[in-house]
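INFO worker-7 received task bundle
INFO bundle size: 2
INFO processing item 0
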Amino acid sequence: MAARLRRARLLLLLALVAGAGIACAGESAVQVTAPRGNGAAAPALAAAPREAPPSGNTLRVFNRPVFTFRASAYGVPPSERAKGVNARIMALLERAPEGQVTVESEGTGNAVKIDGSIAFIVTEGDVDAAYGESVATATAAAVERLTLAIEETREARDARRMVANATWAAGATVAYLLALVAWRYISRAVTRRMLKLAEMAAGKVRIGGAELVSRGRALLFARQLLRLGFWAFVLLVTYEWVSFVLRRFPFTRAWGEQLNAFLTSTALGMLEAIAESVPELVVVAVIFVVARMAAGVLTRFFDGVQSRRIEVDWLDADSARPTRRLVTIGVWIFALAMAYPYIPGSGTEAFRGVSVLLGLMVSIGASGIVGQAASGLILMYTRTFRPGEYVRIGEHEGTIVEMGVFTTRVRTGLGEELTVPNSYALATVSKNYSRTVKGVGFILDTTVTIGYDAPWRQVEAMLIEAARRTAGVLSTPAPHVFQTALSDFYVEYRLVCQAVPSEPRPRAEILSVLHANVQDVFNENGVQIMSPHYLGDPAEAKVVPKARWHEPVAKAQG
């Protein structure tokens, strides 16, 4: 109901516009006198002057531009000349029985006369020399427009003609309203049919059993497209109806002709621009096709280097992936630079302004992104990390899963996957536990502090025994124990060994097993681990006897 009410209001408003045009024409008709013809204006005469000086300089008779004064005459500025000539012409038309326009040559130019009386003079300064006009051609055009304006003033005083024009306008209005109603019913039928087709087509477009376009989105898109087409047709018909109604009445005829000329010139200009842009678009298409082919060839080459099918001295497999990305980006940037002059509108100030704005947005807003990308490239080309290696970056450690341009993904083995910004990875101290090992695997290390009362040879043997019991720790190279510090109350021992798990097991899991074995071995030998801090010698050694290793966990009561 609300939609119908809105449509009724719209139609009523359009009808009022037409009525206002008729009333305006009727009121203006009383101002002047003069008769002639059937009132149809030639499109060529409706054209406005090619130059756009101040509007006050243009002589208008019955709302139609006749001539534009560009220079002063006898000390009178152009705007005052236009006002004075307009008043003189209206006075001449009121008393002139015929309204015949003639031209006579004067000392300062050509005098345009109405029934022998001078209306205005066309001087050399009034000529638009930039377009090759002369006094003769400018005078001829002014006479033609003035003659048409006089004819329209006469038509406005002819009651029979005005009634006929109003009848044409009313008939056009009725036809316009009927066209809108018919178009409404036609659009409903077309919309129902197109929505059914869109629903059927959306269900059939599938990839791997999944719908490529959902039914809801397809129906929404089709509905919006049909609605856009409906209102585009309504606006076009309304535009033509307003133009037709305005051209029926002498006072508004110039407006209607301008509307029609604007629509025609705009449509022709668009078609002409499209036709002129076709060769340039072909060049742009060729440039991008060649760029795509070059990028494809380079991608296959770098993929071959990465998979070690192709071997070159200047590039290794680890650097092939980032190099491929850089080269591909360079190819497309070069293609864009080559195609830029051929893009339609690239030479306009608006296009250049948008380009500058985008450049500022990228340079100001994407500085952090550029820094991340530069850090990622440095990490890749310096081979600081490689996928599959176990590293420690700052306080985080784990296996490198993927090295991207902006971030590096690290899997800790504790159910976590860390995303480390490349700028952070480059700025902090990192440890690589996989780079110095022989073959596949990583370095495993742990630290314990033992009192001075325990023989250091025994402590080293116990640590090596714990490493031997840990599944995945290699016997070759053999584990090593280093005394890294002689503190006030204890010695700090560090066990370093190489681990190659027999199955995919994270470093955290193997390190946990190693710590468990270290505790077992030290408990078996009655040696107390002083970590983390030493406070004093207890009455008994803080060790767990083997008989208590497997005691059951107490169950909660209640």
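INFO item 0 finished
INFO processing item 1
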Amino acid sequence: MKLRKIKIKNFRCYKIETEINLDDLTVFIGKNDAGKSSIFDALEIFFNEPKDSPDKDDLHVAANDNEMSISCIFESLPKEIVIDATYPTTLKEEYMLNSEGLLEIKKVFSVGAKITTKVYAIANHPTANNFNDLLTLNQTNLRRRASDLSISLSEVDQRVNTKIRRAIWESSDNLRLGLTEVDLSKETAKAIWDKIKPQLPIFALFKSDRPSTDQDAEAQDPMKAAIKEAISGQEQELDSIAERVKKEVQEIANRTVAKIKEMNAELASQLNPRVTIKKWDSLFSVSLTGDEDIPINKRGSGTRRLILLNFFRAKAEQDSQEKGTGVIYAVEEPETSQHPNNQKMLIDAFEDIVDTENCQVLLSTHTPVLARRFNRKTLRLVTKNNGVIEILHGDNDNTTKKIVHALGVLPDDDVKVFLGVEGKNDINFLRIISKILRDSGENVPDLGKAEDEGNLVFVPLGGSNIELWISRLEEFNRSEFYIIDRDTIPPCPPHYKAVADGFNARDNCKAWITEKKELENYIHRNVIISVCPGYAGQGLDFEDVPSLFAQTVHEASGSGNRWADLDEEKKEEKESKAKKRLNTEVVSLMTPELLTQVDQHNEIRTWLTEIGRALNS
């Protein structure tokens, strides 16, 4: 399952029900105390049910009643689910999906002498009398209901509640379906919720203000798991040794008591030699040391947080594998205590995680350096309007202006160049190809080094993200360059010609449109074949290199499924992985000579030379 929406009501600063749409990668932006952390805490309460959470102080101070609610809406639902005996059914057949065909689970917390919780499915469910409560009826009452309605169950397996419910529902031609709160907290319906709950994704929250030592619970858990796994392979031999040791120690203890008896028989009668064996995993502990055996606990806060974050990822992945579900990583302010280079590495890591099937990442930040690296479609601005929390989608033009106003763009004084590209894959391509040329002695800049030193800032253009920053970049009087994919085959004009013309009309601004389809077409065919034997591409300027690469890799995998038989979503996922591999592993095998062969008009060297002049000015 994947989490697509969350709704919060009467929880902390969220008084009215607030709906938040989520993507595979979602970045919450806002000033301090805007309400970002409350979103993450609400999800933590929903998924992990921490002890003593929520508490009475989490209820909005101006709530009209004593109830707060947190709802999660899921897509990519399991094709089948077993909720009765061993008989498979679907959530749709049980009328447990909402009007959009999604699973919507609502948890309501009532504040009184103690906090009580109820769970509901918000579903397009039968509302007609005698058909609206079947999920709450046990087997005996289901049979009685069928009898009362004169429904024959002679051909129905009456040992399976699902089949009885289906027979009753199918007997009516007017179930009067309507959006209903189906109570999953009582009777038979609770057993259904107990079967759904293990299917939910793992939710793993990493807070910005948590302790950061290698003795933190999340740090220790994956290491403890590793110890248990290592011991399990040696357990028989270890137990044999333990028994021998126990026998010898027991004999010594018995002789000791015998000697005591010679001196004090009364004392000896009170003694009973007993040898116990601890669990093997309790005998081992793990800590990390760095240079010169310095414990991680004594390292800088940024290093501790970086290491702990990856401990945290390891534990979440382990839990997900054990449950066979997806995982949601929620990370508050990943930039905290991190050097800008580490921030960039974290962003790359989060984007890689999202490329993994069944993984989602939720981030929060109030740092423009991080925000400007993401496609604006992933951004959510958390803001207050007359005391009411609003969640504004970054893909809206009005929202981009508000994000700019809320965060601004604050480059360091060392920044000399803004370089706009299509997305993260193009950033990788340009970083690698420029280093290859620079290392071979050519007079072009190493763009990766320029970025790391703070002289160059990459600005992803994907999803018109440039609109988020373009109105502010002019204010800094820095050189701006944009590399835009042509996409279309001549004589058709380039897809973004008007955008490029607009850039070129401005001062200190230069836009280039590729002569080939996209940057992947500048990777020599022989290099691709060296990594992917059987690659079907011919090295043509407008062939779809990522698609051909993904298709070749898929067919070579021996999965048995033809490329043509895959659905579009699966193809897109494989093509995304292909683009990443092409722009990292494959392009790194290029040489200046191969680039000359594939880029006969010297486009890439021309771009780099002009960017280099601006960096050296």
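INFO item 1 finished
INFO post-check item 1: The first strand starts at residue 2 and ends at 9.
INFO post-check item 1: The radius of gyration is 31 Å.
INFO worker-7 idle
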